[in-house]
Design a protein that fits this description.
The chain is α+β, with helices and mostly antiparallel strands. It is 44% helix and 11% strand.
């Protein structure tokens, strides 16, 4: 497990897609259930914190793989060397969240599909589509998982989903095509050896740009430097937290230069700081594509 403090819930939170995510559940005692499609097959993983440390249990064909990969999932490979805080807002966030770790799942398609669903829409709309697709096409979670938990489908299932089911889920044709096309290349994507190689492979696919690639690499590879450039909120938050003024993507990247190698880590700490600019402009509208 990672050396030093570890916040298990915080390490696993990036893999949760909304309050009703069928692949993620948190119990009252802080234990987290998570499903995954490993190279050995589906699995259910339960991670809890007990006296003496972190405890993992897993069920299904992929159970052994999930337990072997648990340290990396919780950030054991997260190297904070070279991360030096330059802003008071980040210093306070580090003080309040010493257990922040950026973990890696090693599973690309699990991160890619929901990231594509989140392109250019509000989270609530994307999460609704994710839940609909998982309930329809996901497998029941193995083992004693909480009721309703599902495992993401295999890549060939994503390729075969008919257009009318994408529509029922609320994903318009562009996002549906992007996911189906990526599924044809899933084996190559999953075999990528470095975050740089994965970035190149992802951005060679139609419909996948800088933002989507970063969102995938943050989760699948634990890339602490992958900044979600193009996010609707992120540049404004970083600008306001660092300078008291909103900024755009180029301005954000200039502000993040002192954190090269850890720029995603810095943006996570900005989110955790709770510092937000006054909400004066129009909000991004919710568009229900099922009505189109």
């Amino acid at each position: 497990m990672p050396a030093g403090p570890l916040d298990v819930g915080l390490a696993l939170m990036p893999h949760r897609r909304g309050g009703g995510d069928p692949t993620w559940r948190r119990e009252g005692d802080g234990s987290v259930w998570r499903t995954s499609r490993t190279p050995d097959g589906p699995c259910t993983l339960r991670v809890s914190v007990k006296a003496g440390g972190v405890h993992g249990q897993a069920w299904g064909p992929g159970a052994a793989w999930a337990l072997e990969s648990l340290p990396a999932l919780l950030g054991a490979d997260d190297d904070v060397a070279g991360f030096s805080v330059e802003h008071d807002v980040l210093a306070e966030a580090v003080r309040r969240h010493p257990g922040l770790r950026i973990g890696r799942t090693g599973r690309v398609m699990e991160a890619l599909v929901p990231a594509v669903l989140e392109q250019k829409v509000v989270g609530r709309e994307a999460w609704r589509a994710w839940q609909w697709l998982l309930r329809r096409y996901g497998e029941p979670a193995p083992g004693p998982a909480p009721e309703g938990m599902r495992v993401v489908p295999e890549s060939d299932v994503w390729r075969r989903i008919p257009s009318w089911h994408w529509h029922q889920a609320g994903a318009e044709a562009v996002r549906a095509r992007t996911i189906a096309n990526a599924a044809w290349h899933a084996a190559k994507l999953e075999a990528a050896g470095t975050t740089e190689e994965l970035d190149r492979l992802l951005r060679a696919l139609p419909g996948i740009g800088v933002w989507t690639s970063a969102e995938v690499r943050q989760r699948a590879f634990g890339d602490a430097d992958a900044v979600s450039v193009g996010d609707f909120h992120l540049a404004k938050l970083v600008g306001y937290a660092f300078t008291g003024e909103k900024t755009d993507d180029p301005g954000m990247m200039r502000l993040l230069e002192p954190y090269a190698g850890h720029r995603h880590r810095a943006t996570v700490l900005v989110w955790l700081s709770g510092v937000r600019p006054p909400a004066r402009g129009p909000r991004m509208p919710v568009r229900d594509y099922r009505a189109f």
